[in-house]
Amino acid sequence: MSENPNKVPTLGVDAGFLRSRRGILKLAEMGALLVAFVCFTVAFGRKYVAAAVLEFLITLLLVLLYALRLNKRLTFFFWPLIDLFNSVFAAVYFVVLSLMAVITHTVAGTVVGGVAGLVAAGLLFVDGFILFKNITFNKRRSEAHNESNG
């Protein structure tokens, strides 16, 4: 018997993604964003807390999406492109936000949070560059997606 090509993949944890270059990069982004969030919270930098926690949650959801292979079940979006837009816009936003935090330092925690935000912005730029390099629009969806997860 031949296998059904329309079969939906089963839900399981993709430990390979978490050990891949992109998985490690996403986890490093989450770490830097968590440090920025904690520093801004301790320093009472209310202006900066929301952005840090929001980007942390978006990155966490993308990691869960890839790690649980939900991107193979939810095929109505081209997930690498959504991930690329998130990485680029978040990186630009965090550069501006972190520079504001560092320049207008009122408490040491704001400066440390700003530096952690700049580190997160650098990681987001690298993630966006890797995604941009891997996404090609002249290949089938499955080929481009396999390249972007590797």
> How do the SSEs run, as a string of H and E?
HHHHHHH
Number of helices: 7
Radius of gyration: 18 Å
The rounded distance between the terminal residues' Cα atoms is 31 Å
Shape: elongated
Largest sheet: none
How does this model look, in words?
This protein is mainly α and 150 residues long. It is 76% helix and 0% strand. The protein is built from seven helices and no strands. The chain has helices at 15-19, 21-42, 46-67, 70-73, 79-103, 108-134, 141-149. Helix 2 (21-42) runs antiparallel to helix 6 (108-134) and helix 5 runs antiparallel to helix 6 (108-134). The longest helix has 27 residues, at 108-134. It is elongated and about 55 Å long. The mean pLDDT is 84.
Set down the secondary structure blueprint.
Elements: H1 15-19, H2 21-42, H3 46-67, H4 70-73, H5 79-103, H6 108-134, H7 141-149
Quick recap:
With 150 residues, this protein is mostly helical.
